[in-house]
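User: I'm curious what two different proteins look like when written out as structure tokens. Can you demonstrate?

Assistant: Sure. I'll show them one after the other, since each token string lines up with its own sequence. Here's the first protein:
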Amino acid sequence: MLGLKKSDLQIQQDVLRELRWDTRLGATEVGVETDKGIVTLTGTVDSFAKKGAASEAAHRVQGVLDVANDINVHFPGVGTPTDAEVAAAVRHALEWDVFVPHRQIRSTVADGWVTLEGEVHHIRQRLDAEAAIRNITGVKGLWNEIRVKAPKVDPVQIRKTIHDALERRVDREADRIKVDVDDGTVRLTGRVPSWMQKQAVLGAVAHAPGVSAVTDELRIDFSA
């Protein structure tokens, strides 16, 4: 089957199977539509974490290029946390995560939607702050407005550091990825064979010193 392109129907069925396989999701919570490798997820779930889990499950399927997550988050009326309770939980989660500089981050909660603001020194810290609150009960959605103020590093050194990390993590894929650096912003272009490899690349870049933003233009090419 390797090298054979899947039909949209095959991709849809495989995504549905993967959703059923994921124990974090209910068997009938999520609907799936597929068009030329682009998967649209629909339905209603009772947590923001489940919405994210559905995206992750879809991306794990061979043949999926992109995912449009149109799943709604709706909490049962009884016992739904108030915005004040969610805000307290967010603060607690940020404080308890050892990788998050919580004193540099503030949050606003409105109707279950959390906005994170502040300033950190590394992209990884921005991502860790977001991850810390994704599984909190009562969170309907998240806007991450944290700015990254990275220390100035020579663009040549940034490019070399990233390339070395890619060689350690994704082996032969490193030569297929082009890294451009302009004033702390890294632009990634090229091909990767899977969503997992793409995440590995982005994870490597997130740790690079001197990077303040990433423009992700990587394409998933299953024949790569």
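Here's a second, unrelated protein for contrast:
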Amino acid sequence: MTEHREPNLTIFQELAPSLKNNLPAALATVVLSQGGFPAVTGMKLLVHPDGSYLDNIGGGVLEQKIIEDTLNSLSENRSQLVNYLLREGGTNAIGTMCGGEVQIFIEVYQPKPTLLIVGGGHVGQSLSSIARELDYQIKLVDIDPNRGQVFEPDDITGSTYVVVVTEDAANDEAVVRAALPTPTPYIGMIGS
């Protein structure tokens, strides 16, 4: 029978504000532990994008590999099940002689996506209303400083979706060109 450990509640107390404030985090959980490994099923490790973490999953080389893989999962926004063999060689081996096998489920928590609407006219306003219903964070900006907040490409992150609906093609092109080198996963545009 596999030993099971209840999770440290401090992890959830630290995870809750991250979720509430739309900050990314990842939770690595031991789902299988066999052989020479000190962690047991249910142990958890909370990892933040800056590499800081809370609690432990056995320490040493394995824990550093888990943190590295968790940071990669965060950057790729991808939850995954990872298998580690505590051996010196072979597929999934981490270079230790402990023997055994560990499976870790890495669960990624990312902020709600932001829909950045560039163009504060009637199309931008209508799109903003629809996107609120779809649970996006909305940021409505314009290219004209007289109509409120102005478009800043530096504000675009990997969870920012950009839609360009300005009043003329030259402005649309300028915004799209500025948005292309950013980490946005999507740029959309309509034309009149």
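A detail about the second structure: The mean pLDDT is 85.
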